Amino acid sequence: MAASFLLSLIFLISTLSLLASSSSPSKANPNPTTFTIPLTPIFTKHPSSDPIKTLNSLASASLTRAHHLKHPKSKSPLAKTKVFPHSYGGYSISLSFGTPPQTIPFLLDTGSSLVWFPCTSRYRCTDCNFPNVDPSKIPSFIPKLSSSSKIIGCKNPKCAWISGPNVVSRCQDCTNSENCTQACPPYLLQYGSGSTLGLSLSETLNFPKKLFTDFLVGCSIFSTRQPAGIAGFGRSPESLPSQLGLSKFSYCLISRSLDDTSESSDLVLYSGSSSDSKTSGLSYTPFRKNPVSNNSAFLDTFMEKPVFDAVVTAFKTQMGNLPRAADVEAKSGLGPCYNLAGVKLEKVKFPDLTFHFKGGAKLELPVVNYFAFAGNSSVVCLTIVTDSGFGPGLTVGPAIILGNFQQQNLYVEYDLENERFGFRQQSCNK
User: Fold this and answer.
1) Which UniProt keyword terms apply here (predicted)?
2) Among 350, 323, 325, which Cα is nearest to 335's?
3) Residues 61/299, Cβ–Cβ less than 8 Å
4) How far is it, in rounded angstroms, from Cα 10 to Cα 148?
5) Measured between alpha carbons, how far is 135 from 132 in angstroms, rounded to an integer?
6) Rounded to whole angstroms, how far apart are CA atoms 319 and 386?
């Protein structure tokens, strides 16, 4: 069964304010409760003063994560991979767990499902010395300060959510005991941008209007390149939407143009059944389920090479009268790039880029969502990447991954109840 969204993206999200409804998801509710969450960048400075180096970091991160997406069983030491440390271009949330509540920042990821936080005073994160991030000062959850913290047992059905249906066979101390106290085996999760290791806890998730008790959350004690926890919004039972029984969620990402900003947009969660009603003005396409879990998404859109080559060929044909910026392509990892020095921008006719979805929905992207200036220079680059192809051993993988850079100033909706993805263009700035 598919576990994560085919349209996956990784965000970092900041402050959180949620309301919850007590209505059952099985009963139609014409006015479902909504949860509104501000989305803001987790960091405020660029990782590098060199804009070309920044673009190269972004392209490298996209390719690294795409490789992980296509090779889910890869045993490669991802901790050694150089990836962009999310110093900007993403969004973070804060969630409050425990009794009394402890507030922890999380990355929001629709491509994975487990919700986990840095845990205990002994938490360690390698390769986490990003700009403005002191690894020794990463906020951690302290279980001994919470009266509601409990270790998930090996025979607890929730243990199977992350350890697999055959986990009981690994519970050696539980073989002849009905009252087994053995802990659920440790989890090891690998993401395109890092990994994490920890134990499973049962905790209370605190929202202003409702408490969610017995919430499965990961207590990570060691991570690589993960300066914050991850709130998985995927499709497995351990995800935040699944545990909260959400019917849908939506967001609108503000335009960044590769600049840092202190502005915020909203992630909205919906509780209770919305029946088959559609949001006004949205185009919808049905979900497909991706058999790969724990996938990160990218700043750039990723395309499999045959698709990418066809797109680039069309772009080159329509942009053929402009000089290529080969030096920027080599440094940034993006391409094609064009030098617009001495050219009036309003005179440049950029090719249109439209995604056609099953069901007839069309997503016509603004130029700024797929072309970006290389810093303050006069060079523009296509912000779509690919790798060398399918490669040996490939068994799964989508042809296109729509990144959050392409979703700027789009209102998007994940209608979980009706298995569909909706979108429309609009300004997301408040």
Assistant:
1) Aspartyl protease, Glycoprotein, Hydrolase, Protease, Signal
2) 325
3) yes
4) 30
5) 10
6) 20
Per residue in 109-128, pLDDT tens? 877 899 999 999 999 988 87
Q: What is the pLDDT of residue 284?
A: 93
Q: Which strands sit side by side in the sheet containing 33-39, from one edge to the other? A: 33-39, 265-271, 246-252, 410-415, 420-425, 283-286
99-124 in b/e form (b: 16+ CB < 10 A) is eebbebbbbbbbbbbbbbbbbbeebb
pLDDT tens-digit map of 407-420 = 888 898 999 999 99
pLDDT by residue (tens digit) across 252-277?
A: 877 765 454 567 777 788 887 767 78
Alpha-carbon distance of 125 to 220, in angstroms, equals 10
- pTM value? 0.74
Q: Over 70: is that where the pLDDT of 77 sits?
A: no
Please provide residue 159's backbone torsions phi and psi, each rounded to the nearest 5 degrees: -60, -35
Spatial distance between the Cα atoms of 190 and 223, rounded to a whole number of angstroms: 10
Name the β-bridge partners of 88: none
303 - beta bridge partners?
400
Please name the amino acid found at residue 338. Y
Q: Is 219 in contact with 188 (CB distance < 8 Å)? A: no
Burial 394-416 (b: 16+ CB within 10 A, else e): eeebbebbbbbbbbbbbbbbbbb
Contact assessment for residue 401 and residue 301, using Cβ atoms and an 8 Å cutoff = yes
Work out whether strand 115-118 and strand 92-97 pair parallel, antiparallel, or are unpaired: unpaired
CA–CA distance, 203 with 410 (Å, rounded to integer): 34
| Closest C-alpha to 404, from 316, 315, 298 | 298
CA distance 248 to 208: 19
Radius of gyration (C-alpha) of the chain in whole angstroms = 22
**What is the DSSP annotation of 55-121?**
HHHHHHHHHHHHHHHH-TT----GGGS-----SSS--EEEEEETTTTEEEEEEEETT---EEEEBST
Determine contact, residues 35/269, Cβ cutoff 8 Å.
yes
